Amino acid sequence: MKNVILGLTLLVTATLVSANVDGKPKLTTQEAKVKMKASMSLLDKELKQTIGKLSKQTKGTLVQIYRHHDRHSQKVTLRQVMQEVGQEMETMISAVFMDNAEMAADAARRLANHRIPRGGLISYLELDQINDELLSGLDGMNTEVEGNAIKFAQAADKGDMAAAAALLTPIVNGCVACHNIFRGQPGKNSHIRY
Fold this sequence. Notes:
By secondary structure, this protein is mainly α. It has helices at 2-17, 29-40, 45-52, 56-67, 78-98, 101-112, 132-135, 138-157, 161-166, 168-182.
């Protein structure tokens, strides 16, 4: 419970401090829905029913998040995606230390456009976590991580590594908020067919 409260506190802070993800969507709404439908086809009946009970607003938020990702995998798990995201974060930090603006900007853009894993993002949550209340925070966390990664890339493109470095803390805060709410034991989920 303490982790959920900490996560929600960080989430409220993230939502108040930032707006929607900067950067143009990579997919149209229709393309995002097609990708989501492909992910849904991999899920078992119970998980599909749980997702189907979400409000139109929550489903709309998920579509908007998907629009910013054109890298969808039918093979990698959420754990593998998070390994990639962690590696990009390490590269961003290393690039700041080494004053390598190009490497920093490239890694930040890859982080912001991370892969969507097999079965989609929320399919890795426990069934009781797939509800409008908890998922209402996704947009704020997404903005905190991916929106600030785009801002980091833009600052690095301008050669302003101090401004880029200042964005590392909000990015990490967004990661921690999400992990505190949603991360149990990462890895495979019994509701996704393999």
